[in-house]
Amino acid sequence: MAIVMTQIKPVQSRKIERLIEGIATSDGAGVKLTRVLTGKLQRRLDPFLMLDAFGSDIPDDYIAGFPDHPHRGFETVTYMLSGRMRHRDSAGHEGLLESGGVQWMTTARGVIHSEIPEQNKGVMEGFQLWLNLPAKNKMDEPWYQDFPSGSIPEYVTAENVTVRVIAGTSNGVTGVVTREQTAPLFLDVHLPAGASFSTELASAFNAFIYVYRGAVKVDDTLAETRRMGILTNDTEADGLILTSQESARLILVAGKPLNEPIVQYGPFVMNTEAEIEQALVDYRSGFLA
């Protein structure tokens, strides 16, 4: 059951620095998606490496899924708005991600995994976010956990805004996952028409919103559907205030930058070229299998 919030601490809001329109592409075995956070934004939005938004009711757009593929050096967070996806990996983990649920995987030293839809009709919609790992943790043991929809903490404000807290803490409610080094915040915010919403954000954290229904305003800037709004890092701002004239839904993501080198080669994200070369050697020799 959602917690009812009657009072929320006033904040000084950040603004939108710029709006980003994602790039339509495909990945895996032809899954159609929109790549919103690309490699060009990795330094600006450190510790986040990638954000994909996917959503279709056409089975051919998603049915083949993501067959076996490797990863090393970061975490993946998959938030399923609608649909069913089966996960299997070389570390022996298996789980079914369903509507409203979250899959959190720490690839660390490496896994080979697959994500295959368990549906042949209907809508499949959600997000996958890549979160970087600190250099000291990139060769840790892999970790995986599914969180069903009912386990995701929620709260409702006095203006009937519903907030699902996937990671971090918002207005005193803590999500299912916390990370000390990057301290990620991941919220799914549902605003009714005419409502406003605010939450605290540490000024040193990089942050963005992605609107997936309707439109919201941050200060005087309107962020419409399928737009990412990169938030300013004003030192005097300690939070974010959103308003909406229409019903709207968005995700808010923020995190503490690692300020470490980022070297990426496809599914491997390390700190040096030598580490990438070693990842390729390990994969080809079966070390990740």
Helix-and-strand structural type:
mainly beta
Helix content range of the residues, please?
under 10%
- Apparent shape: globular
Q: What is the spatial order of strands in the main beta sheet?
A: 1-14-15-18-25-20-23-2
Order of helices and strands: EEEEEEEEEEEEEEEEEEEEEEEEEEEH
Share of residues in strands: over 45%
Low-confidence parts: none
Measured distance between first and last alpha carbons = 41 Å
- Helix count equals 1
Radius of gyration: 18 Å
Largest sheet: 8 strands, mixed
Q: Total number of β-strand segments? A: 27
Q: What's the average pLDDT?
A: 96
Structural summary, described in words:
This protein has 289 residues and is mainly beta. It has one helix and 27 strands. It has one helix spanning 273-284; strands at residues 3-4, 16-21, 23-27, 31-37, 48-56, 66-71, 74-82, 84-89, 94-98, 102-106, 111-117, 124-132, 143-147, 154-156, 162-167, 169-170, 173-174, 185-191, 196-200, 206-213, 215-218, 221-224, 227-231, 239-243, 248-255, 263-265, 268-270. Strand 16 and strand 17 form a beta hairpin. 37% of the residues are buried.
